[in-house]
Design goal:
By secondary structure, the chain is mainly beta. Helices cover 0% and strands 53% of the residues. The protein is built from no helices and 11 strands. Strands 2, 4, 5, 6, 9, 10 and 11 form a 7-stranded mixed β-sheet that branches. Strands 1-3-8-7 form a 4-stranded antiparallel β-sheet, with no helix packed on it. 29% of the residues are buried.
Length: 112
């Protein structure tokens, strides 16, 4: 059974940076297309970024060049580098692996 574990969340001031990591493990872990989602209080979960096995990426419109998704296939880990953070980026960030594996989430809080 594949498991995903996120790390790297925390509290940061507006304009700061954070780097999230998501490590895949478990029997049969297949490093396929992965994604980052986020969910703010009382809001729907939204897509932040997707990254294919080959490293192709797509981002939510709100990212606007501030975030970068990457992956290290040998380590079975994906990353989300977040720069120029805004208070509205405050949310729980989730890692996802195709077809439907989710991590437990990591809290990101951006103070004004």
């Amino acid at each position: 059974q594949v498991q995903l574990v996120e790390s790297g969340g925390g509290l940061v001031q507006a304009g700061g940076s954070l780097r999230l990591s998501c490590a895949a493990s478990g029997s049969g872990a297949m490093f396929r297309t992965m994604a980052w989602y986020r969910q703010a209080p009382e809001k729907q979960r939204e897509l932040v970024a997707t990254i294919t096995f080959g490293g192709g990426t797509n981002y939510g419109e709100f990212v606007k060049g501030r975030f970068t998704a990457s992956r290290d296939n040998a380590k079975k880990t994906v990353y989300l580098q977040m720069n120029s953070l805004k208070p509205e980026d405050t949310a729980v960030y989730f890692c996802w692996m195709f077809p439907n594996v989710w991590g437990q989430g990591t809290q990101v809080t951006v103070s004004a």
